[in-house]
Specification:
2 domains; 41% helix; alpha/beta; Spore Coat Polysaccharide Biosynthesis Protein SpsA, Chain A; 308 residues; nine-stranded mixed beta sheet
């Protein structure tokens, strides 16, 4: 039986949501090795008080860090003691039985290192990784539509072999407001990990897409900027062009339906995609080895990363 290390970054600004996540773990606690909560609230008392009701029943470890999703996950990863790692957002929750199912899945699929499940909102409407296939291997061409940080489960040895790029994602302090989980998965796969998407099970996460009316143009542009930058980093220019075309078509469709806000959001993300792809690329030190590996077309042995 696998046990999970769950790395949760939080500011503690959504107390009801964080409580829902913790409560969803209680009936699945036999499968939880540790809940590593990375507290990024300036007031250390805030998150501590929210976690207090669960301290006796869940194996919670609380750390503190500066803001940034990628920074928080990198801080928590070395402390993971389970055989599998996950990165739930503080506003998602795991339906009962999900951890047992994922544990069994990894036992039955030993050649895979990474699993991405589906993402639905509380009403059952897809709210993330909207890929048309229900099951498929993950490749660069579909990674942007199958990977979603809260839906990922990764063998711990593989997860610890890489780091999230702290220049990507929410709280990074850069214009690149998204893409950190996709970048992380792509780099793990480049190093030999195998990944699979399976919508048979799902996590629950609020819907905040561009046509739902729950976001902002600024957020959409920031996410587009991060995606465009990431597509440039991984030299996926044709995929970038397809995203531009798709977003422009969605903007036109939304406008025709009278959804002016949705249309503006799609156009904002399109601007971000364009600007992010064309922005100057600076390769951080921990990314240079990945670029060299890709340039040399090295074919590493996947078993070197797989602890099973």
């Amino acid at each position: 039986m696998h046990k999970f290390s769950l790395i949760v970054s939080t500011l503690g600004e959504r107390p009801d949501d964080l409580g829902s996540l913790m409560r969803s773990l209680l009936p699945q606690s036999d499968y939880v090795a540790d809940v590593i909560v990375v507290d990024q609230n300036p007031d250390p008392r805030r998150v501590s008080a929210l976690l207090q009701p669960f301290q006796g029943t869940l194996p919670i470890r609380r750390l503190r860090s500066q803001r940034g999703l990628s920074r928080a996950r990198n801080l928590g990863l070395p402390l993971a003691s389970g055989t599998l790692v996950a990165f739930p957002d503080d506003d998602c929750f795991y339906p009962e039985g999900l951890l047992q199912w994922a544990s069994n899945w990894f036992e039955a699929h030993r050649k895979y290192d990474i699993l991405a499940v589906g993402v639905n909102d509380a009403e059952g409407v897809p709210s993330g990784n909207r890929w048309p296939q229900d099951r498929c291997d993950i490749h660069p061409i579909n990674a942007f539509r199958t990977t979603f940080s809260s839906s990922l489960f990764i063998r711990t040895g593989v997860a610890k072999s890489g780091k999230f790029d702290i220049g990507l994602g929410v709280g990074s302090g850069t214009p690149y407001g998204s893409g950190e989980e996709t970048d992380y998965v792509l780099r793990l796969m480049l190093a030999g990990a195998r990944a699979r998407f399976d919508r048979t099970r799902h996590i629950v996460h609020p819907r905040r897409d561009m046509l739902s009316g729950s976001g902002s143009a600024q957020r959409a542009q920031s996410y587009g900027f991060g995606m465009g930058h990431l597509l440039r980093l991984h030299t996926l220019s044709l995929l970038w062009a397809s995203f531009l075309t798709y977003n422009l078509a969605r903007a036109g469709w939304a406008r025709a339906q009278g959804n002016r806000m949705g249309s503006e959001m799609c156009l904002a993300q399109t601007r971000g995609l364009w600007q992010g792809f064309l922005a100057p690329v600076q390769i951080a030190a921990d990314r240079r080895g990945v670029r060299a590996l890709k340039s040399a077309a090295v074919q590493p042995n996947p078993s070197s990363l797989n602890p099973m």
